[in-house]
Amino acid sequence: MLTKIETISSCPNCGSNQPIGYNFCGRCGQPNFVIEKEKDEESRRNIKYLLAYIISLLIMLIAGGFTEDSLFTAIILAVAYAFFDLAFASIQPRVWNLLLPKLIHFKPLIAIIIIAIVSGFVVSFVMDNLNYALFGETYSLILPFMESNNPLLFGIIIIGVFPAFFEELAFRGFVYNNLDKIAGKKSAMWGSTFLFGLVHFSLLSLIWIIPFGLMLAYFRNKYSTLLYGIVGHFTHNTTSVLIEYYRII
Questions:
Q1: Domain ranges, ordered by start, for the chain
Q2: Residue 137 and residue 131 in contact, taking contact as beta carbons nearer than 8 Å
Q3: What's the pTM?
Q4: What pLDDT shows up at residue 5?
């Protein structure tokens, strides 16, 4: 008898018994207003999280834009962004559950590594030529690290490891999850990708960042894990670092 009481609720519209957590009454068809209210409250909470993240991120990016390109600045900014992303990820512990899947599929893992290597080569050479043709200059990712004793190691850690882990945790984790709750998976894929592109502050780079971000969002959506995105992001960035490093030396 106790079990029946715990698993049955009454429809406030017609008074008929319904299972706990029902969405629509099986008798009168009216929605469960308690469930609807909870969903509305959750959506408002997700919107607040997103706005807080976006505003805070913009402030950090603008502040970072006024710093000089140096090894010390690069390290400080990388650590600051890491703590920033960790702070927001800690708001929603379920983001951490996305890091390691229950089962690793090696075919998509190999596929995203190959795609990332190719994209690293294409972006490095094509974007260099485009920047030079349009603006008469090129931009180097690894140049600030050349003042260190081991520029390649610093470049791989700061440009390869940090963005791969923390940006995926933020964009394909925190941002994606909140958008998914608000507007569904397709909106989460496009919204997280669009924001991912905007924070790089380069209209020209959107040519490759948007497709690349969509690919990372696709793998996150399909396999419900950040692992493939982290590996792909790391591989792409590290490929670009290696290319630039060996072109300089």
A1: 1-31, 41-248
A2: yes
A3: 0.83
A4: 41
Half-sphere exposure of residue 75, counting CA atoms within 13 Å on the CB side? 9
The burial class, CB within 10 Å (0-12 / 13-18 / 19+), for 197 is buried
Per-residue pLDDT at 167: 95
The three-class DSSP label of residue 9 is strand
Which among 3, 24, 28 has a CA at the least distance from the CA of 15? Answer: 28
Cβ 196 vs Cβ 169: under 8 Å: no
User: What tokens appear for 133 in the block?
Assistant: 């043709």
Distance CA 193, CA 213 (A): 5
Amino acid occupying residue 122: V
User: Quick one: pLDDT at residue 4?
Assistant: 43
AA letter at 113: I
Residue 204 DSSP symbol:
T
- Residue 20's pLDDT is 59
Which amino acid does the sequence have at 214? L
- Which has more confidence, 133 or 12? 133
Residues in the chain: 249
**CA gap 123, 26 in Å, rounded:** 56
* Residue 116 one-letter amino acid: A
Taking Cα atoms as reference points, which of 101, 93, 89 lies closest to residue 166? 89
Structure tokens at 163: 């963005």
Helices 185-198 and 176-183 pack at an angle, to 10 degrees, of 140
Does the structure show a pLDDT above 70 at 18?
no
168-217 residue pLDDT tens: 999 999 999 999 988 899 999 999 999 999 887 677 778 889 999 999 99
